[in-house]
Automatic annotation (TrEMBL):
Compartments (UniProt record): Membrane
Protein name: WAT1-related protein
Coiled-coil regions listed in the entry: none
Transmembrane domains' residue ranges: 16-34, 46-66, 78-97, 103-129, 141-159, 186-205, 217-238, 253-274, 281-301, 307-327
Keyword Protein transport: no
Chain residue ranges for the region called Disordered: 342-391
Domain EamA stretches: 17-157, 187-325
GO cellular component: plasma membrane
Keywords: Membrane, Transmembrane, Transmembrane helix
InterPro entries associated with the record: EamA_dom, EmrE-like, WAT1-related
């Protein structure tokens, strides 16, 4: 009886780890079904529309029941931010992601999209939403990690190297497809970088929206509805033949339903749970695991070749990613120590009412500034978990 209780305790402690591994399996499967659907000749604009449509059908009821009675007021600004997020993460970001996938491979695109935290940091610096902080270890780590990530991306794109032969499985799911897709590594890399920039802007807008509308399920539902409408307009312009819109019992339906329900629905719920249990940085460090799974599954089932340049570039990008995340983690912990919690501030404020007010305004200004920086930093870090949702 005691041993069974111990096993239950171990499983309970391992729950975040198991959930994140399951999440990475979902994402690895997403890259595979995306590649199969586009290779089957499915227009990727239509595929993205169906993904957003399935995601909306899944998320709207979920948000309605989970956040019923505690939903904040939906203002015009929140709707506009939802529109922007749908544009950046749906009609723009995902179109670039899929076109890059067509031109390259699932492994290549997965490696490139590990650049998102570094590019988000660069964009935040340009928009003056974040400071370099070169005098602090956290600031130095973020800058160094960003440089390492970009170096890895250049290595991944420009150096091919010898093929790494690990034997053949004689399994190639792309044999049954109609379109193999033309290989354009440079164009694929440019599109992947543009897609990463879209996602970086998405994360910044989403972080700001989270301050106005702290209802993650409802905002994700709004985002997906906006993205579905936008993607429908784009898909209609691109593809007028309605025969191409039909979904049969084939890989096209599988890709649309899988990516919409599991990647934009189930995975979001997993991320929300784990962020609540372990924090956003814990979620983010699992991203490279997807790269490994995609590389292995692509090699085994899609006949994708592994080259030394791809392996080395991926390793460098992952190392840079972890350095950036380490710096972000240190920054948040430091701000958490410098700025007391809200309840603690309220107690201190009430105790100071009956005492002298000399110098209190300066302290309050520092605390307000620190609290604002803390919120911005935490919002940016919490959105790191959201990177998975919009792949």
């Amino acid at each position: 009886m005691a041993s069974m209780e111990n096993i239950c305790n171990v499983v309970h402690e391992m729950r975040p780890l198991l959930l994140m591994i399951f999440g990475q399996i979902i994402l690895a499967g997403m890259n595979i079904v995306f590649k199969l659907a586009t290779s089957d000749g499915m227009n990727f604009s239509i595929l993205i529309f169906y993904r957003c449509l399935f995601a909306s059908v899944f998320m709207v009821p979920l948000a309605f029941f989970i956040e019923r009675g505690k939903r904040a007021k939906l203002t015009k600004m929140v709707i506009f931010q939802g529109f922007l997020c749908g544009l950046l993460g749906g009609s723009l970001g995902q179109n670039m992601y899929l076109q890059s996938l067509v031109y390259t491979s699932a492994t290549f695109v997965s490696a490139m999209f590990n650049l998102i935290p570094a590019i988000t940091f660069v964009v935040a610096i340009i928009l003056r939403l974040e400071k370099l902080g070169l005098k602090t270890p956290a600031g130095k780590a973020k800058v160094l990690g960003t440089i390492v990530c970009i170096s890895g991306a250049m290595l991944l794109t420009l150096y091919k190297g010898p093929e790494i032969n690990m034997g053949k499985t004689n399994i190639n799911l792309l044999h049954s497809t109609h379109h193999k897709g033309e290989s354009k590594p440079l164009a694929g890399a440019i599109l992947a970088l543009a897609g990463c920039t879209c996602y970086a802007l998405l994360l910044i807008v989403q972080a700001k929206a989270a301050q106005r509308y702290p209802c993650p399920y409802s905002f994700t539902a709004l985002l997906n509805v906006m993205a579905a409408v936008q993607c429908f307009v784009v898909a209609v312009v691109v593809e007028r033949d309605w025969k191409e819109w039909k979904l049969g019992w084939n890989v096209r339906l599988l890709a649309s339903a899988y990516t919409g329900i599991f990647c934009s629905g189930v995975l979001f719920t997993i991320i929300a749970w784990v962020v609540r249990m372990k924090g956003p940085v814990y979620v983010s460090v699992f991203n490279p695991l997807m790269l490994v799974m995609v590389a292995i599954s692509g090699y085994l089932f899609l006949d994708e070749k592994l080259y030394l340049g791809s392996v080395l570039g991926s390793i460098v990008i992952v190392c840079g990613l972890y350095v950036v995340l380490w710096g972000k983690d240190k920054e948040i912990k430091k701000l958490s120590q410098l700025v007391p919690d809200k309840e603690e501030n309220d107690i201190k404020a009430s105790s100071l009412k009956d005492s002298s007010h000399g110098g209190s305004s300066k302290r309050e200004e520092k605390e307000d500034e620190g609290e604002e920086n803390k919120r911005d930093s935490q919002a940016g870090s919490e959105i790191l978990g959201g990177i998975y949702i919009y792949h």
